[in-house]
Design brief:
This protein is an alpha+beta fold and 324 residues long. It contains 14 helices and four strands. The protein has helices spanning 3-9, 11-30, 34-39, 47-58, 63-72, 75-97, 105-125, 131-140, 142-145, 168-181, 207-214, 216-223, 261-285, 297-310, and strands at 150-159, 201-206, 232-236, 240-250. The relative contact order is 0.11.
Length: 324
């Protein structure tokens, strides 16, 4: 890879360019001497100022996009944009003159968050994976996309909390014989038994979902049932007894890449952005000398060791999700 291409991929270079952009935007808004410009009590608004303001409002630094959007504004919309900027600028200047930002940790955190937004936006802008890259990522993370086994069934419920002469299990057994004799089907289950406290029909549900609904013992029992035209049970749950009509099963399987391509792309983007952000921050920290004071030797040593390790971080994926 050429030096130029390496520089264009280096998060620190992007970070420094972003800092230069922020400084340039500040100079555009406040002039060469920010304090002197504020002392004039004059708020200057021009198209460059509005372009910067739109980008900050949206937390997306895309000059060409917002230049187009600004050009499309109606006079009323442009007036509203100017009003919003002037109101914010006036409040910011007054707060600054009063020293309200000094020592304010909330403001500190917001400024840090803005820089993280800027880093993430830069990584997203350069993200353009090929189909081959997406497919490779998909196969490398198949366990993430593999779908659990599922079962489809309906059930008839006998509530053990209801007091009656016939016990709940005996009642369930009698209902089973009656329904099998009448060949009661999937859609007729609601005509029998008591009102279910959970779902009536379970369509392609996983074992964990069934367990959360009806308990581990019930889920384990259903896991051993095969599809049948006959009602099976009674099966005890956390609520009572159930007669179950299993109509389908699907084993664990990996869906086709084409079915979940968008999900794969989103996952790859999240990983690339996270790696890009971490690399940029580590490169930035490397440019600072760190000293500790009033800390235990063990804590100081561990902190400095961690920062030293951050000086030579592992390379994150490239813009297209591949590694060098």
């Amino acid at each position: 890879m050429t030096l130029f291409k390496r520089l264009t991929r280096d998060p620190l270079v992007h970070f420094l360019l972003a800092g230069a952009l922020l400084f340039g935007l500040y100079r555009t808004i406040h002039g060469p001497d920010g304090a002197a410009a504020q002392d004039t009590r004059t708020i200057m608004v021009d198209r460059s100022t509005l372009l910067s303001f739109m980008q900050y409002e949206s937390m997306a630094f895309k000059p060409e996009y917002f230049r187009t959007q600004l050009a499309r504004l109606s006079p009323a919309q442009e007036r509203d944009l100017i009003d919003r900027y002037v109101r914010e600028e006036a409040l910011f200047r007054e707060a600054s003159s009063m020293g309200l930002a000094d020592g304010d940790y909330v403001i500190r955190r917001r400024m840090v968050q803005k820089m993280l937004y800027l880093l993430d936006d830069t990584a997203t802008e350069s993200f353009s994976p090929s189909e081959a890259t997406l497919l490779s990522y998909f196969h490398a993370h198949e366990d993430r996309y593999r779908e659990e086994p599922t079962v489809t069934f309906t059930h008839v419920f006998v509530d053990e909390a209801i007091k009656r002469q016939e016990g709940p299990e005996k009642l369930a057994e009698r209902l089973q014989r009656e329904m099998d004799a009448k060949h009661v089907g999937f859609n007729e289950a609601t005509l029998y038994g008591d009102r279910s406290p959970v779902l009536q029909n379970y369509i392609r549900r996983t074992g964990s979902f069934i367990e959360n609904q009806l308990g581990a013992d019930f889920a384990s029992h259903v896991a051993g049932l095969q599809p049948s035209l006959r009602w099976q049970g009674p099966i005890k749950s956390n609520y009572g007894y159930h007669l179950v009509l299993v109509t389908g099963r699907e084993s664990a399987h990996l869906p086709a890449f084409e079915q979940i391509r968008d999900e794969v792309r989103d996952d790859l983007l999240r990983d690339v952005v996270a790696a890009y952000r971490e690399k940029a921050i580590q490169d930035l920290v490397r440019h600072y000398a760190v000293q500790t004071r009033d800390l235990s030797p063990a804590a100081s040593g561990q902190a400095l060791a961690s920062l030293s390790e951050a000086g030579t971080p592992a390379q994150p994926p490239n813009d297209d999700g591949t590694s060098e």
